Amino acid sequence: MKKIAIVGGGIIGMTLANYLDQKKYQVTLFDEPTGQATSASAGIISPWLSKRRNKQWYRLAKDGAAFFPKLIQDFQLDETIYQQSGTLLLRPKEQLTELFTLAEERKKEAPEIGTIELLSGEQTQQELPLLKPLPALKVSGGGRLDGKAYLIQLRQLAEQKGIEFIGQRVQLVDATTINYGEKEAVFDQIILTGGPHLKRLLAPLGYQVDLRPQKGQLLVFQTAYQTSGALPVAMLDGEADLIPFLDGKILLGATHENDAAWDLRETPEAFKQLTDNARNFLADPEKLLSTPFHYRVGTRAYTSDFAPFFGQLNDHLLVASGLGSSGLTTGPYIGYLLANYLNTGQANWQEYQKELITYIQQEKTLES
Ligand SMILES: Cc1cc2nc3c(=O)[nH]c(=O)nc-3n(C[C@H](O)[C@H](O)[C@H](O)COP(=O)(O)OP(=O)(O)OC[C@H]3O[C@@H](n4cnc5c(N)ncnc54)[C@H](O)[C@@H]3O)c2cc1C
């Protein structure tokens, strides 16, 4: 049986671990989760109305969203973890008509977008009473994923399969050897899914990686606003979205802070930025903004062209990173594609990304 190590227990690493053929591989997953993006994330799964021009990224995000029904079934995700809640997009009225046309066009290749409706202010408020009566575009296929709850569920499933977890920060000694604490272990394959840390992980082996960290903060309000039905996610105009969960938790976020990078401190500036923006959209701002809250802070990974990359780097190493602000949408599918590659030898991802060499270059020849 071959030995596989996964470094990084975020959404890619954990999904990948669960899809690996346990009859073929003995799997160890290393994760030290400080600053992990997956558990800090907002949870919006709704890529279809993005105006990004990168067609490969859009295909990946679209197929990533379409992958969710399989994910729900394979990992028994209940509605507290993932819910197809629908998404409301709040924009000035003239932009909504344009977005409606874009949505109709995209639906031809992405039926999972569901129904597309232009809502009056009154209808928007009926959908999500927290909001002012503002016009919106609703897509019924949008959803929200509780990243942290997803990881807890997948860890339980992985442990039942016999996957070993080691909660330590690791370093690569060479392409097959991992150092953790005082120990070293050798593997046939190592899969690096460490988010923005990939750059540091690969540096000792002479690789240069086009990756930068970005800080994201969001606010979690614990309200009494519980519901048994699905409240839609509201994607507000500006840098803040509202994501209501079934237990009364309402997320407001997130910031995109390039200067702060690795800094994980909670800041009053983030609170001000997010709440100032939300006030323009909330029917009764003080009601929500005066409820108890806490921060979530995480670090996203970005490449220069904002596109993810994943695949086989050399005989022993596989990598995946650069998921930016849409990694909850693309991450599970990337994990699945990598697992499928290791299980079957089929690499079905050319249509989703540029060649790996675009993002990772070797400075010197590896002696491994
Ligand atoms: C505030 C915020 C809001 C977001 N909202 C959304 C959203 O609404 N929708 C969406 O689609 N995406 C969202 N994202 C983006 C998404 O969360 C990320 O793109 C995705 O979770 C990245 O997953 P990952 O597995 O690549 O990395 P991560 O989740 O960061 O996991 C990597 C893990 O590897 C560990 N690790 C790294 N190096 C080592 C090492 N040497 N040893 C041991 N462990 C190591 C890390 O500590 C971490 O636990 C958001 C991100 C943030 C920060």
From TrEMBL:
Please give the Pfam families that the UniProt record associates with this protein: DAO
The UniProt record lists the keyword Flavoprotein: yes
Residue ranges of domain FAD dependent oxidoreductase in the record: 3-340
Is Flavoprotein tagged as a keyword?
A: yes
Task: Output this protein's name.
Answer: FAD-dependent oxidoreductase
Query: Which UniProt keywords are given for this protein, alphabetically ordered?
Result: Flavoprotein, Oxidoreductase
Q: Which family does it belong to?
A: Belongs to the DadA oxidoreductase family.
Instruction: Quote one Gene Ontology molecular function term.
Output: oxidoreductase activity
Q: Which organism is it from?
A: Enterococcus dongliensis
Recorded hits in InterPro entries, A to Z, give: FAD-dep_OxRdtase (IPR006076), FAD/NAD-bd_sf (IPR036188)
Provide the cofactor list for this protein.
Answer: FAD
GO cellular component annotations, sorted alphabetically?
cytoplasm
Q: Which residues form a coiled coil?
A: none
